[in-house]
Amino acid sequence: MQRSQQQQREQQVQQQQVWQQHRSNNWDNDHRTWQQRGGYNGYRIPDNDFRGHYGRGHSFRIFSLPFMFQGGYPRFQYDGYWFTVLDPYPDYWGNDWYETDDVYVDYYGDGYYLFNRRYPNRPGIAISISF
Question: Which helix (H) or strand (E) holds 127?
């Protein structure tokens, strides 16, 4: 389904506003692992699907994907799944990271995280997956 230029622009403005509101002021205090959250309870991507579309070797940019703000959290759709971003993004990521930075989804230890390729040795942002 193709979106009109006006719909695309409206989504871009919405994303910009939502991401600016979802920025961390103190990443060390705002970031929590899935273990600290009591464990991951969202949908799990089947291994074959995960290997083919996710992990370090499969990056993408959020800006061009379907996007919404629901329940106080930004959500985007990628490869048929909805990803809810639970952590605010780190203050050291740029203001337009969702438009310019390549990110990827990976399972790390205790749950799914969104990683930014620009910061390879930094922790990811906790995300939950749903249909």
Answer: strand 125-130
Question: Residue 122 phi/psi, 5° resolution?
Answer: -110, 155
Instruction: Let me know: does 107 contact 50? Beta carbons within 8 Å.
Output: yes
CA 118 to each of CA 3, 72, 93, 95: distance values in angstroms, whole numbers, following the listed order: 29, 26, 9, 13
List, in order, residues 6 or more apart from 33 with CB less than 8 Å away: 109, 110, 111, 123, 126
pLDDT digits (tens, 9 = 90+) for 10-69: 877 888 888 888 899 888 888 888 989 999 989 999 999 999 999 999 999 999 899 999
- Alpha-carbon distance of 3 to 8, in angstroms, equals 6
Identify the helix (H) or strand (E) that includes residue 116: strand 111-116
d(CA 20, CA 95): 7
d(Cα 43, Cα 96) in Å, to the nearest integer? 28
| C-alpha dihedral sign at 44, 91, 61, 1 | positive
Cα 108 to Cα 63: distance, rounded to the nearest angstrom: 24
